[in-house]
Amino acid sequence: MPSMTVLATTAVPDHVRGALTRWMVQPAPGLYVGTLSARVRDELWKVVSASVGSGAAVLIHPEANEQGYALLTAGERRRVPVDFDGLTLIAFRPEDLESGEPGGWEGGEAGISG
Hints:
The protein has helices at 14-23, 38-51; strands at residues 3-10, 25-28, 31-36, 56-62, 69-75, 79-84, 87-92. The protein is of the alpha+beta class. The protein has a domain at 3-77: Alpha-Beta Plaits (2-Layer Sandwich). It has a five-stranded antiparallel β-sheet with strand order 2-3-1-4-5, with helices on one face. A hairpin with a 2-residue loop joins strand 2 (25-28) and strand 3. It is globular, with a radius of gyration of 16 Å. It starts with a strand and ends in a 22-residue tail after the last strand.
């Protein structure tokens, strides 16, 4: 059964944007919305995730879980989805990954302690 799917992209190649506009509408730059079957959604995600290059993409679609949706990402992003007891939460990577210095979490002193 078709369901609403949302896909957001950043700096993806032109051919990826063209493929997405065949199946979805683009209400804002880099934002695609459509009612897709699971098969079409999965095939589009394969194309996008394999072709994202230096860009990034996020796919959100309905799922039978506590939140009611699934979130998939491709490419390098500062925001990283993390499973926390069955809930998908978003963690922030440190800004300076290359220096090897500890970065801390966005938002001040709050963080995850173990």
